[in-house]
Amino acid sequence: MQDDECLAEFRVKKEDVPRLADVLQIPETVRCEQCSVCGRTEGPCMLLRGLAYPCRYSDMIHFARPVPEICMITNTVMDFIFDHHAHRLTRWNPSIMNAQALQSYADAVSARGAALQNCFGFVDGTVRPIARPGEHQRLVYNGHKKVHSLKFQSLALPNGLIANMYGPIGEQSYDNRQVVLITVIFITCLGYFSFSIFLYANIMFE
């Protein structure tokens, strides 16, 4: 596979695939519960292909595997990444949220012409459509999008990384819980600065 094709299929360059497997600590052999196995680069590629843009497992025919097997390998890799790295998003990550890093984020935002010189991050939310549940449909129905969905709340940094992720949650409890999340992050970050700091958020979060 050529570099341009790899970038189009997986949104990463060809030489970055093994590097990604190393960083994520993917084992040499990925083994599913029903004993299907694949290499440490093939499994992440299946996951990347599925996450690149909406598609069916049957569209991933270039992996030359049955659809159920592609599904199980993808889920196994996804579970492995979550089990080993979820804490980087769901807990405080000092490697990207320390005093020096927060200052560099604020400087980067200010250098791009922002009105504030001490804004270090951006509150972002996303709606992920789901199939209509058999019960409690009202709890996950989004009246604005007209779909049943789950919502996620994140804190995005100027370098493109997600500093914190909260979710999934349903429609009924979304607004209150996201305000709590933002407040906790904001108060925690205050301890790193000798002056006021800010998070940029849509007016709906006020």
Q: How would you explain this protein's 3D organization?
A:
- A hairpin with a 5-residue loop joins strand 5 (147-156) and strand 6 (162-169).
- The chain has helices spanning 3-10, 16-23, 42-52, 67-85, 87-90, 99-111, 174-190, and strands at residues 29-31, 37-39, 119-129, 141-142, 147-156, 162-169, 198-200.
- Helix 3 crosses helix 4 (67-85).
- Strands 3, 4, 5, 6 and 7 form a five-stranded mixed beta sheet that branches.
- It contains seven helices and seven strands; from the N terminus they run H-H-E-E-H-H-H-H-E-E-E-E-H-E.
- With 206 residues, it is α+β, with helices and mostly antiparallel strands.
- The longest helix is centred in the middle third of the chain and has 19 residues, at 67-85.
Low-confidence stretches: none
Report the portion of residues in β strands: 15-25%
DSSP, total strands: 7
**With helices defined by DSSP (H or I, 4 residues minimum), what is the helix count?**
7
**Percentage of helical residues?**
25-40%
Q: Between the first and last Cα atoms, what is the distance in angstroms? A: 48 Å
The whole-angstrom Rg is 20 Å
Mean pLDDT: 82
Oligomeric status of the shown chains?
A: single chain
Which secondary-structure class do the elements indicate?
alpha+beta
User: Which overall shape is indicated by the principal axes computed on the Cα atoms?
Assistant: globular
Order of helices and strands: HHEEHHHHEEEEHE
Q: Tell me the major beta sheet.
A: 5 strands, mixed
